[in-house]
From TrEMBL:
The lineage of its organism: Bacteria, Bacillati, Actinomycetota, Actinomycetes, Kitasatosporales. This is Dipeptidase. PANTHER family: DIPEPTIDASE, MICROSOMAL DIPEPTIDASE. It comes from Streptomyces tricolor. It comes from the Bacteria. InterPro entries: Metal_Hydrolase (IPR032466), Pept_M19 (IPR008257).
């Protein structure tokens, strides 16, 4: 990552004279006026950020106060307010070799940390689990915290553990990296996991999953599928980025591709991120695109997008390119709200369905 940081070319802050005509991307206003307009738009339609590594980052700090501000991390309440972030999905990160029972313990510890952090910052944060609670938190001037995504390894191949994690607040599960969601797609047990997630209201995240797993999950799930950290492979050939055929399928199924603000996946500068957003909007539709800051997850961010306060600069770039207010409101807030509402509705509609007690050893046993 250090080498990647060294390769990032110097760019100009939005609002500075870059020597380019004001109407290069479709808006003739000066850059400073675009930035003001971006702030105004985000005040009405704040950012719902699809991936934050904050819980893991806080484990390594001896003391912190998110409401006062923390220079050692990318996220705190003052910068969330400056960047107009209204909701955050907090990743329940596990270390690379964590598996089995230890993965379950680690996920529970992460959920406990999330609850502890939110409860100790009541003036800035509120733990939520539904679309309605997200709106309530915003109306009360709090940033909504949604627990997840958690890696599929946290289930230890048990649907009972999935139900326990959901009862403790988990709302997004990443399928990649499990025995039941591999290169050849979902196994029979994997399909049962997706059905049980639908019944509970837990969203499926297929970022990093194989094309076969992503395609089968999109076809099977009764709720929209997320890609919590995926950009356009046509713009940058990163393995976690999506090819156009999967983007189109995700768009047809009303799923959501949340573009990460990382130099590795999207490029070193704000215009590179905007190129991915343009491409996904054109291929999958404006209702399929969202944002994932991936802050505090140990990655290098594009220049001018160093922390959670910088979202207005990205929105100003999109305004310059001619994105409408409707498209931007979908990107920042409304698409995530739609997906959360869909998960809530599906869970209510399937309340009478019996909980599955299927075992991986029964469904995926060799013939």
């Amino acid at each position: 990552m250090a080498d990647l940081q060294d390769d990032i070319p110097a760019t100009v802050e939005i609002g500075a004279d870059d020597g380019l005509p004001d109407d290069l991307f479709g808006d003739r206003r000066p850059a400073g006026e675009l930035l003001e307009r971006a702030h105004a738009l985000l005040a009405e339609h704040p950012v719902a950020d699809g991936y934050s590594g904050l819980p893991w980052a806080l484990r390594h700090l001896p003391w912190y106060d998110l409401e006062l501000g923390e220079a050692a991390i990318d996220t705190d309440v003052p910068r969330l307010r400056e960047g107009h972030v209204g909701a955050l999905f907090w990743s329940l990160h596990l270390s690379g070799e964590t598996g089995g029972e230890r993965a379950v313990t680690a996920a529970l510890e992460q959920l406990d940390l999330v609850r502890t952090v939110v409860e100790s910052h009541p003036e800035g944060l509120r733990l939520v689990g539904t679309a309605g609670q997200v709106i309530d938190a915003r109306n009360c001037g709090r940033v909504a915290v949604v627990p997840g995504p958690a890696p599929g390894a946290a289930l230890d191949d048990s649907l009972g553990i999935l139900r326990v994690l959901h009862a403790l607040g988990l709302r997004v599960l990443t399928l990649a990296g499990t025995a039941w969601a591999g290169e050849s797609g979902l196994t029979r047990f994997g399909e049962e996991v997706v059905r049980e997630m639908n019944r509970l209201g837990v969203l499926a995240d297929v970022s990093g999953a194989s094309p076969a797993t992503a395609a089968r999950t999109i076809a099977l799930s009764k709720t929209p599928v997320l890609c919590s950290r995926s950009a356009a492979r046509a713009r940058r050939p990163h393995p976690a980025n999506l090819p156009d055929d999967l983007l189109a399928a995700l768009g047809e199924a009303k799923g959501l591709c949340m573009v990460p603000l990382t130099a590795e996946q999207t490029g070193p500068a704000v215009p590179d991120v905007a190129d991915h957003l343009d491409h996904i909007r054109d291929v999958a539709g404006p209702e399929c695109v969202g944002l994932s800051g991936t802050y505090d997850s140990g990655v290098v961010h594009p220049r001018d997008l160093a922390d959670t306060s910088r979202y207005p600069h990205l929105i100003a770039e999109l305004l310059r390119r001619g994105w409408s207010e409707t498209e931007l409101s979908l990107l920042t807030w409304r698409n995530v709200q739609r997906v959360l509402r869909s998960a809530d509705f599906t869970a209510r509609a399937t309340q009478q369905r019996r909980a599955s007690h299927a075992r991986i050893t029964e469904l995926d046993a060799a013939p």
